Amino acid sequence: ELRSSAFWRAVLAEFLGSLLYALLGLGASLRWAPGPPSVVGAALAFGLAQTTVVQALGHVSGGHVNPAITLAFLMASQLSLPRALGYLLAQV
């Protein structure tokens, strides 16, 4: 499995998905205007970032983006150990 291009494409998709999730969520939740921070705005930013990343990259790797999701799939035997380790390294 480690030699297939599909595996490395999926690991790259998980890396890019985690990177985009952090950049979109944190960038959108920054305080650009004066005043108190908006909890609703930050929640919407991260929710929409997650939705966008999973929609864009989910067909390549499953769109886990979160290491907890990857571990849950591993424990439920829905993901092989090498693929889970690749995803975890890419996500962290």
UniProtKB/TrEMBL annotation:
GO terms for cellular component: anchoring junction; apical plasma membrane. It is a multi-pass membrane protein. This is Lens fiber major intrinsic protein. Aquaporins form homotetrameric transmembrane channels, with each monomer independently mediating water transport across the plasma membrane along its osmotic gradient. Specifically expressed in lens fiber cells, this aquaporin is crucial for maintaining lens water homeostasis and transparency. Beyond water permeability, it also acts as a cell-to-cell adhesion molecule, forming thin junctions between lens fiber cells that are essential for maintaining the ordered structure and transparency of the lens. It comes from the Eukaryota. The keyword Transmembrane helix applies. PROSITE patterns: MIP (PS00221). It is found in: Cell junction; Cell membrane. Belongs to the MIP/aquaporin (TC 1.A.8) family. The chain crosses the membrane at residues 6-26, 38-57, 69-90. Keywords: Cell junction, Cell membrane, Eye lens protein, Membrane, Transmembrane, Transmembrane helix, Transport. One of its GO terms (molecular function) is water channel activity. It catalyses: H2O(in) = H2O(out). The gene is LOC101821507.
